[in-house]
């Protein structure tokens, strides 16, 4: 995940977005809950890497979970974070906190990815690849969150019971 250093204009736009009830409501309208999943699922646009994309303002788009992090912890905390990682291995997840979106480092992120990729049932090992999987699950979440729950159940059947599976 590339670190996007916030310039002064970017920081100001982000701070304004976090403080705007209209922008926050527009962001929250894209979130859904899925039964059996602790994640908060993004149903908006998805980037090539499977991350949510959120239009903060005209011409200004950012990774959705970075907006979530700034909302929860402030723009300064986001600017200070080297990188954000998904401990739940769900790039669509917007839940900020232990087990989901956390601050990390490039080294730590790469080490975690390598360690979890080969775990049976890990979404990182999904043959669909992270981009296709994220898009498919996003589409399901958008249509009906129950369909995502069904997909997770299906994966558990394919790969075996995996309590940590998102
Ligand atoms: Zn999550």
From TrEMBL:
Organism, scientific name: Pengzhenrongella frigida
Protein name (record): HNH endonuclease
């Amino acid at each position: 995940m590339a670190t996007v250093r916030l310039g002064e204009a970017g920081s100001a736009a982000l701070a304004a977005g976090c403080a705007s009830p209209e922008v926050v409501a527009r962001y929250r309208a894209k979130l859904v809950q899925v039964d059996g999943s602790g994640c908060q699922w993004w149903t908006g646009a998805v980037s090539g890497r499977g991350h949510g994309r959120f239009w903060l303002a005209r011409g200004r788009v950012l990774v959705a979970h970075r907006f979530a992090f700034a909302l929860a912890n402030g723009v300064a905390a986001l600017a200070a974070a080297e990188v954000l990682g998904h401990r739940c291995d769900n790039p669509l997840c917007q839940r900020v906190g232990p087990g989901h979106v956390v601050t990390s480092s490039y080294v730590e992120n790469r080490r975690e990815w390598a360690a979890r990729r080969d775990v049976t049932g890990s979404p990182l090992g999904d043959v669909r690849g992270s981009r296709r999987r994220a898009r498919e699950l996003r589409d399901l979440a958008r249509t009906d969150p129950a369909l995502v729950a069904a997909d997770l159940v299906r994966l558990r059947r394919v790969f075996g019971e995996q309590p940590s599976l998102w």
